Amino acid sequence: xxEPAVFHDELVQPGVQGLPDRFFDRFVFNMHPRDxxxxxxxxxxxxxxxxxxxxxxxIVSTEDQQRNxxxxxxxxxxxxxxxxxxxxxxxxxxxxxxLKLAANPSQVEFDxxxxxxxPAWIGEIAVTNAEGAPSSFDHLFQSGYYEGTLTIDGKSRxxxxxxxxxxxxxxxxxxxxxxxxxxxxxxxFPEYSVGFLLVETRDHRRVLLEGAVMHEDGALxxxxxxxxxLDFDDSLDLQSGTLDVRTAGGRRYPMEIDASAKxxxxxxxxxxxxxxxxxxxxxxxxxxxxxxxxxxxxxxxSSLTDRLxxxxxxxxxxxxxxxxxxxxxxxxxxxxxxK
Length: 339
Hints:
CATH topology: AttH-like fold
Radius of gyration: 19 Å
CATH architecture: Beta Barrel
């Protein structure tokens, strides 16, 4: 077990000079009911001072459609607390955030408070890429609860005690080339969250594993191994599978996954290489993906998917986001590592 660390939660403000050209400072939150049902809400924001750009997105997945809102502006035209219809405030670093989405074309609005329920896992990622500069950035993820309201098509509902994971990262990231499988798991159970990032190459070598089991009582148990046996369909969409997670504290978390819910295609949030690209002041885009199979990981400009999934471990059931992506290269074929 390790002691919780502290992350500098405030984003870099407009006007900061002397940062690397590819520097970014970003966050992503997800939100979903604790029990069965939709929607899944994923939203994020990033600032890119060397490019004088700030942008963000909101993705809402229901049973039959995914709504995508993307917005961008010049960072120097903001006060550093949001862009477009989205505003945020760090109320108490590493503990409480305020998050608001005003009226916009997606017909989705929210007024939220996110409160930490576990300590944060914090690490530093350093990866040498096959092409381009190395990646070097600080990374955090942390489980929390929401309070407030979510409004869709004019109908408001309380989201009090809904689960939600946040992800913070800051530095230089150029993770590209030769990736085969990518998994980012945030499995929310009643007393803890199992969170990790796993990246494998196209020739099935592990290049990155980071994360921890984050407990509500304040304990962090670092994850030291993850093996998997996952069922993908022909469109590279995950349907089900098994994860076996092992920790430095000697605990094992074998989880059966049901990922048959729809949506969570991160291309709708600009993950096809669009983040940080200048688009002028007050740029706004909105579109809708029908979740009838016509839109999938092969048809979009990114295969990255953040799926609301169910995790079963014996008699205990959890819910959370399982992010996944497989290479679309013809030279790659997924290979299970769980024996």
